[in-house]
UniProtKB/TrEMBL annotation:
Species per Swiss-Prot/TrEMBL record: Mucilaginibacter psychrotolerans
Keyword set includes Transferase: yes
Parts forming coiled coils: none
GO MF term set: nucleotidyltransferase activity
Keywords associated with the record: Transferase
Record-annotated MobA-like NTP transferase domain positions: 4-162
Transmembrane segments: none
One Pfam family of this chain: NTP_transf_3
Protein name: Nucleotidyltransferase family protein
């Protein structure tokens, strides 16, 4: 079984408003990310909220976790979600996603799962712009390493330190994310 973890706890300081609520193609960025996860073969969808929790509506059909330590950085959200799913031994994999990549799709998430099944690699990440990044699948055997992340470290640290165990799938538009008003204006135009 695979769980999708959507990291949506950040304060969006460079944007000045919750990026989770930005509209694109009739959905908020968070709704789009959840929809893709729900349409994939992931059996569970977890959303981690933190800053701006009062301004972001939970999305139906998800488990919402509230990260009271969101100021620490992304690592605290990853630890919270991995601790939660680690209790369920039927969950073999976690796909860690961010909510500001507008071009993700259910097919992309399924390709991560398929590549893991094909290769047996414990980590499958998306490849774009000569790097690897989210969304990325982590097998249960890597959960302990994710729990050691601190501060603003994201799962990218695991991708870099375990490069020999990483398989990749192409995600041409993976580098497009929304961090500033200019990013958002480029997206909608």
């Amino acid at each position: 079984m695979t769980a999708a973890i959507i990291l949506a706890a950040g304060v969006s300081s460079r944007l000045g408003q919750p990026k989770q609520n930005l509209l694109h193609n009739g959905q908020t960025l968070l709704q789009h990310t959840v929809f893709c996860a729900q349409q994939s073969t992931c059996e569970q969808v977890i959303v981690v909220l933190g800053a701006n929790t009062d301004k972001i509506k939970p999305v139906d059909g998800t488990t919402t976790l509230y990260n009271n330590h969101w100021q620490e950085g992304m690592a605290s959200s990853i630890r919270l979600a991995i601790t939660q799913i680690g209790k369920d031994t039927s969950i073999e994999n976690a796909i860690i996603m961010v909510c500001d990549q507008p071009f993700i799709s259910a097919q992309l998430l399924n390709s991560l799962i398929d590549k893991h099944t094909e290769t047996g690699r414990p980590i499958v990440a998306c490849a774009y712009n000569d790097t690897t990044g989210p969304p990325a699948l982590f097998h249960r055997s890597v959960f302990a390493k994710l729990l050691l992340l601190q501060g603003h470290e994201g799962a990218k640290k695991i991708l870099l330190t375990h490069a020999e165990g990483v398989a990749t799938v192409p995600f041409e538009k993976g580098s497009i994310d929304i961090d500033t008003i200019a990013d958002y204006e480029n997206l909608i135009n």
